[in-house]
Amino acid sequence: MVSNTTFFDTGNPVLLRPSYTELKCVAAILRANLSLQVKIGGHTDNVGSVSLNQTLSQNRANAVSYYLQDQVREATKLTAKGYGHIKPVLDNHTETGKQSNRRVEFRIIRK
What we know:
By secondary structure, this protein is of the alpha+beta class. 39% of the residues lie in helices and 18% in strands. α1 (20-32) packs across α2 (50-72).
């Protein structure tokens, strides 16, 4: 699942308040399915250095993980991984593409 409503300011890993609505729904799913294990993947566009984007994507994935851990209280269910800009979903030559590439993904790794 790709989150289209997880928001961060440009270059910043701090979750913005509009993100909480969707993340509360994800937390409810996790609480209702205690055996789920989820990998949270952070992604960026290609603006900035490779190392900056790697760090930013990891910090964004961590921010989502910390928020969900606080909501669910099951820290072992979640892992966070930053991918930087190496897995774009659209071309980084357009603003629409860049915006789509700045995303957080949730993958079920165990049911």
